[in-house]
Structures are given as structure tokens and as C-alpha cells.
Amino acid sequence: MSQTSAIKAAYWRGFRNGLPFLLVIAPFGLLFGVAATNAGMDLAQVMGFSVMVIAGAAQFTALQLMGDHAPVVLILAASLAVNLRMAMYSAALTPHLGKSKGWHKALVAYFMVDQVYALSANEYETRPEMSRAEKLAYYAGACTPVCPNWYLATLAGALVGAAIPPEFALDFAVPITFLAMIGPALRSLAHVAAALVSIVGALVLSFLPSGVGLMIAALAAMVTGAQVELWVARRKGALL
């Protein structure tokens, strides 16, 4: 297969893998559009929020604090804390995409959302033979059904607003999205251990300010996963 064909194949593979997330991106975006409109934002503000931030969890956090009339500094700090996981995502993808052109990295950073990161990290780990161009193409393919439809769903929610019946229960999208991302990644003892520590940590530390407990739990999970991997490697070495 030529390099051009491989790049095209990587793009369409990413596109196909990203399609199932439409089932949760659409209601999640609708929910934000409705919530933001009900909070008093006009259409330009709602769409500006989604286009500039493009981070559902941080947007909902900011929206809730704005509704509580929290200080701007607190709103920004809480949103940043919720989105700090993107720094971990970036660090994880640096070995694969870190040597790309500056504008490529800028686009990767802008479109870094949970779904695209999860798909790309899994793909890069499963197919280590991929070239950097193929990895970028896969990333772009995964973004195509996810990110533009976040904008469209937000727009639809903002236009329709409170007319969406409450029995639609659009808030199911948030947990379903994360379950769909995490499930396929639990392929080893280290992954399972990290997931369990993150769950327990997030629950135990839920009394902390928004985002702080989550970050502590995430760091503890990373350390746990690394230690379990070292333990498994040592055990394998001892058995050889």
C-alpha cells in the first residue's frame, strides 16, 4: 500500500471509529444548548462558548457556577481544573505526534476531546507501525464525526431550548460517553487497577471543590497503573 493510500485508510478508519460517539455527542450537545439558553445566554454566546472552549465538562462546570453568580476567577479556576486532564492526554500523545508541524499540533490541541483522545491512544498502541502522517490522519478522521456535530447539537439545543420535553432525559449522555471510552481500554491488570483507583478516589474525594478531587484521583490512578505495570514486568522477568 502506498503512503497516500495508507493515510486515506487511516483517516477513514478514524472516521468509522468515531461514528458511534454521535449517539452520545448529539444529546450531550443538545443538553448544553438547552441549559445555556435557559441560563440566559443568547445564541451567539452559546455558540461562542462551544466553539472556543469545545469541552463539555468544563462548559457545564462554568455554566453551573455562572448560575450561582460565582466570581469570574473561581469560574475560570474550576473550569481549568476540570480540563487539566487534557494536559495528561497531551503528554500521552506527545511520543506519537510531538514532532509534527506547529500548525498540526495546534489543530490537535484544539480538537483534543475525550472521545478523540481515547480512540487515537488506543489506535496508536494497537498499531505501533503507523507513520506520523497516518496517526495525524486517523486523529483527523476521529474528529470529523465528533467535533462538528458537537457544534451542530449545541446549535440545535440553543434554538429549540426548553421545547425539548424533559422525558427525553438527555443527561444520560455524560456517563454513557465515558463508559464507551473506558470499556475498550481495560485490556490489562494495570488498566483495571488504575480504573478502580480512579473510581474509588473520585468518590472518596467528592467533597473537595469541583475538579480537585478528580485530578487527585487521576494522579493516584496513573501512579497505580505505572506501579502495577512494573510489578507485572518484574514478575515476568522472574519467571523467565
Automatic annotation (TrEMBL):
InterPro entries according to UniProt: Brnchd-chn_aa_trnsp_permease
Keywords: Cell membrane, Membrane, Transmembrane, Transmembrane helix, Transport
Residues that span the membrane, as ranges: 21-40, 136-153, 159-182, 189-208
A Pfam family annotated for this UniProt entry: AzlC
Domain of life from the UniProt record: Bacteria
Membrane topology: Multi-pass membrane protein
Subcellular location: Cell membrane
Stored PANTHER family: INNER MEMBRANE PROTEIN YGAZ (PTHR34979)
Annotated family: Belongs to the AzlC family.
Protein name: AzlC family ABC transporter permease
